[in-house]
Each structure stands twice: as structure tokens, then as C-alpha cells.
Amino acid sequence: MLSRKGIIPEEYVLTRLAEDPAEPSWLLFAMAWWLIAFAHGDLAPSKGTAEPCVTSIHSFSSAFLFSIEVQVTIGFGGRMVTEECPLAILILIVQNIVGLMINAIMLGCIFMKTAQAHRRAETLIFSKHAVIALRHGRLCFMLRVGDLRKSMIISATIHMQVVRKTTSPEGEVVPLHQVDIPMENGVGGNSIFLVAPLIIYHVIDANSPLYDLAPSDLHHHQDLEIIVILEGVVETTGITTQARTSYLADEILWGQRFVPIVAEEDGRYSVDYSKFGNTIKVPTPLCTARQLDEDRSLLEALTLASARGPLRKRSVPMAKAKPKFSISPDSLS
Q: Of 176, 198, 179, which Cα lies nearest the Cα of 189?
């Protein structure tokens, strides 16, 4: 299993339902009804005694049953409050109010338990920047996505759209033209398994709306936004959750690659989320994907140049390096 290194904040822990407060309140009001009956002499009535405060209360068990009937509004017709005791009427009103408050609290707890989808989406994180670099000889748009919680997202899928201003051949201006583009991951397709942070990428080919995107286009004046949507089912509640992010043109880094953050320690894999959004520079052609497809020599020249770099650093043998000091023959005598 993956070790999260204790990065999960406490506020992301699911809230437990409060213990049922109805049973203590039934006992409390049962004691109140029993004391009223005891003080009025209803537990051992004799001939000629006045009307009881609550009919058919002869013991604590009957008082407890009457307390349940009052709070859950179940009337069996055997026990009821009379006009004999104003205190009994006051207790009846108080117990009704307390019962309504307990019901409201329980409904609120249930709603909080089932409405965790938006909080669950806060633990699905995306990299601050997206990158464009070579992968398998093709220019790819890449981003990193991760999950901070130990509970899994079931049937997780990811979608991406490019939103930009376009003009139709008839001259109609579409300010927010949305185009779906396919995403790829390690297992292929849009379905992902977030057991560890994944790098999701889109191959910029002839069918991609980014086919003519050049490094010079990645500035804040460019009318371009890429929206990423991650959707899945929360394992603990079965509720669908959705997390979204977007990348503007100046948030896309050309010629960068995400650094590895998964390492093996003592036979277990650990994730270092402190490097989640870190990138490094990699050799990448400064041209569009269309130009790279039309002239593959650009890729060959880039590969040759990157291969020569490390060889030059190792071309000077350490044995031929000039010494920083010398020993004179006189010092040996």
C-alpha cells in the first residue's frame, strides 16, 4: 500500500454521526413523569382521590412508555394528560420542543454525512501548471492529478475540454467554443485508478485543437483555456463527486516534465506530495506539433544534440587533469 507520510489534514476526516440522544431524553422525561405522578399520589390511588395528572401511570415502566409516546407522537389511547396538573402540561410542551430539536439535529447529522461530496472533491488535487513535452516521440500536453485521502474514488473518469474564441466560416464569432479532447493515462482510456498520483496526458496530433499551438502562444494575452474535470463515486457514501480545474495559456509550461514523487522505502511505496507540482526542463522542439510532423528532422536534431551534451562532460579523463601542486626532486632527498 502507499504510505501518505501523514499529509492528510484532520479536517478531511469524515465526520462521525453523533450518538442517538433520544434514549437519554426518554429516560429523563420518564423520570419527570414518574415524579409528577408520585407527588400527586397517582401511583397508589385510593377511593375518592382526585383525577390523576396522567392516566394509566402506575409505575416507572408506564411512565417510560408514556415518555416515548409523547416524544415520537405515538398515541395508543391508554395514557393521556389531564387538566388536573399544570406542571404536567408544561412538561408535555417541553418534551415536544426537545423532541423536535433532537429530530432536527439527527437530520442535520445525516445530511452532513451524505453531503460530503464537495469536501471529498477538495482532496482531489491537480498540479498548478500543465506542461508540454515529448513523450514517445510526440508532443504531449500533461498534467498531474492525485488523491489525498486513503479511501478510494470508484469508477473515476477524467475529461478535458479546450475553450477558446473562434470564428465560423460564415463569420459568426463563438466566444466560448468548447472542444472535447481525449486524455491518456498509464492504463489507457479516460478511466483512472488513483492509488497514486498519475500523470494524465493528451497526445497533440492532427485531430487535436492544440495542433498549431507554439511556445510563443503561451502568454496571458492568448485566448485559451483548458478545463479538466475529474468525476467519480465516493467509496464511503456512494455519492458522485466532481473536481474541476483549468489552465490558462500562461499556466502551460513548454519543455518541462514533472519530477518523480513515488519512491520505494523498506518494501513500501511512499508519495512525496511536497514535490507534486515540481517540474524540470527537458529537451523539447520549439515548434508546433504540425511542424514537427511535417519535418521529423527537428526531432532527430534535438535527440542528437541532447546525446552530445553528457558526452562532452565526460570527454576529459580525470587522469589527464593538471595537478594543483607538484613535488620537487629536492624535497625527496
A: 198
Structure confidence at residue 16 (pLDDT): 39
Is the CB of residue 269 less than 8 Å from the CB of residue 263?
Answer: yes
Q: In what order do the strands lie in the sheet with 262-265?
A: 2-3, 268-271, 262-265
Instruction: Judge whether residue 221 has pLDDT over 90.
Output: no
**Whether pLDDT at 17 is above 70:** no
pTM above 0.90, yes or no: no
CA–CA gap between residue 243 and residue 230 (Å, rounded): 5
Helix (H) or strand (E) holding 306: helix 297-313
- Within a 13 Å sphere around the CA of 29, how many CA atoms are in the beta-carbon half? 26
Q: Which of 213, 202, 211 is nearest to 160 (CA)?
A: 202
Q: What is the DSSP string of 136-153?
A: TTEEEEEEEEEE-SSSPE
> Which residue, chain included where needed, has cell 492504463?
187
Q: Count CB neighbours of 95 within 10 A.
A: 20
Report pLDDT for 174: 83
Grid coordinates given for 13:
476526516
Counted residue by residue, the chain has a size of 333
Evaluate whether 3 touches 40 at the Cβ level (below 8 Å).
no
Q: Please write the tens of the pLDDT for every residue from 258-310.
A: 999 988 878 788 888 889 999 999 999 889 999 998 887 877 777 666 655 54
